[in-house]
Amino acid sequence: MNQSTTSLSGLALQKFKRNFWSVLSLGLIVICGLIALFAYVLAPDNSQNANQMHLSIHSKPPGFKVGILSVPNETNRAQSLISKFFFGNKNSAWEYPYERLAFTEKAVIVHPYTSDKELKGVPKEIELSRFPKESTPNSIKKGYSREHTFILGTDKYGRDLLSRLLVGSRISFSIGFIAVLISLLIGVLLGALSGYFGGVVDAVIMWVINVVWSIPTLLLVIAITLALGKGLWQVYIAVGLTMWVEVARVVRGQVLSIKQQQYVTAAVTLGYSHARTLWYHVLPNSIAPVIVIAAANFASAILIESGLSFLGIGAQPPVPSWGSMIKDHYSYIILGKAYLAVAPGIAIMLLVMAFMLLGNGIRDALDVKS
User: How do residues 244-253 score in pLDDT, each as one tens digit?
Assistant: First the structure.
């Protein structure tokens, strides 16, 4: 005989499953997370930071096709498969877009691609010694040249836009996870201490919270970033240090209510330490609203990082970031190539909206009154 779930967690899970948009958002987040994890496996350009530049084919539309000759890299740095998986191929081949290839006894003659058919590019000679020994014209054509399709086109530097988007998803996910983790560690700790002990401890912590709360978030992030320097880890720390205030306020309110409950009073009466009472009896019962705030903060962290990268103080080139991609191409919106800025903008919008809908779904599922 089937028995209906009566536990609070089971009921919350059932309510969450009935929320179509929340389940859809969770699926989108999982897919984006897998894409971020396997970015260099999925990306057509698996070079480090997807930074293969071809200035002759810059700003090409989606679906653009061109012949590419790949010449083995002369510098062969040792690199493990794990390193390639996480950081891309540091020994990526030199690539040359071409219109046609010709061969001599000692070299390959590359006639470069040009957008203007009336202007012919200067042919480039590449010695056959750059290729493996005993390579023939046919083996070079079959093994090192191909017709490449740029699914989303190329950016203003001739880099594959799809590859930059895929690798850039790692920045958004990493900033979200690390910033939210920092905000939770600080916010939960200070909020729990403030609400549990009260008195002078509460007054001091609330004074710090109010001071930080009064400073505009973006201004504070910019100040911290400029103080620590430009770079990814500086952005992680800066964003995390500005998002803990809301977590601390909510946790403090929850703890103030929960510490009046009889089971907490019983734990104190039995002589349990404050640390044990907080860890085993108070915090587990105040974690539900924190989960909702964490989902909202994840979305906020993505937006803040995009804004910082747009201003030039976030992820630094050539690291791909959705915000910096918009910065590089926003002027192309009026030049008939809006997709260069719209594509990363849509990616940001979808991921932020997914986290917001997920947070709303978790909030509704955990609401005992609904």
Answer: 998 999 999 9
Contact call for residues 69 and 98 (beta carbons, < 8 A): yes
User: Is there a contact between 157 and 51 (Cβ–Cβ < 8 Å)?
Assistant: no
CA angle 308, 310, 311 (to 5 degrees): 65
Measure the CA–CA gap between 264 and 279, rounded to whole angstroms. Answer: 11
In sign, the C-alpha dihedral spanning 355, 358, 364, 365 is negative
In a domain? residue 52: no
- Report CA torsion sign: 317, 319, 322, 325: positive
Residue labelled with tokens 């919350």: 12
- For residues 280 and 137, what is the distance between their CA atoms, to the nearest angstrom? 72
Do 126 and 178 lie in a common domain? no
* Cα-based distances in Å from 322 to 37, 98, 332: 16, 29, 15
- 173 and 146, same structural domain? no
Predicted TM-score (pTM) of the model is 0.87
Over the stretch 185-211, which tens digit does the pLDDT of each residue have? 999 999 999 998 889 999 999 999 999
- Residue 107 CB-density burial (10 A; 0-12 exposed, 13-18 middle, 19+ buried): middle
Q: Tokens 């009046």 belong to which residue? A: 260
